[in-house]
Please model this.
Amino acid sequence: MAFHRRIAACMLAAGTVAGLMNVAPAQAVGPAVITTQKLSWEIADQLAAAAVRICAARGWSVTAAVVDPSGHEQVIIKGDTVPLQSLSVSYRKAYTAYAYGMTFDKDTTSALIAAKVTGPPNGALNTIPQVLFVPGGVLLRRADRSVLGGLGVSGAPGGDLDEACAVAAVKEVSPRFQ
Model:
């Protein structure tokens, strides 16, 4: 009899363990798949081209970079005679406008600087490789203010001039951000 009770106990224990293994994990909060809105490559290309064209019409050869909502380069267009560093600077302006503009609800790198979002006096934020608090970056938004990425322009003789070209390009192309 004792032997049969031990067998029954073992079978009960095995059944309990098997039952526990088949229990579904706790449901995660929110959806399992996240979708992100971003510009198509065609619109991102039109935006960067518009910035380069607008600056060229004003006499400046620039590089324009568009970053997507992951902060990665989506499009980069270089003017014909831009300095080498304008490539990385335009990307860093776009990245900063996107990352910090979205966080602090500011539409340009100039607005971030004016709001003193540049970090503590020791410059700690400027030690992050992609961050550059210099005028010339614009946060890309839809009409409903949802964020799509960032645009950075570099190469004009001053960040304020870079930013003027970027703002003009966004104004020109943003009606297509639907």
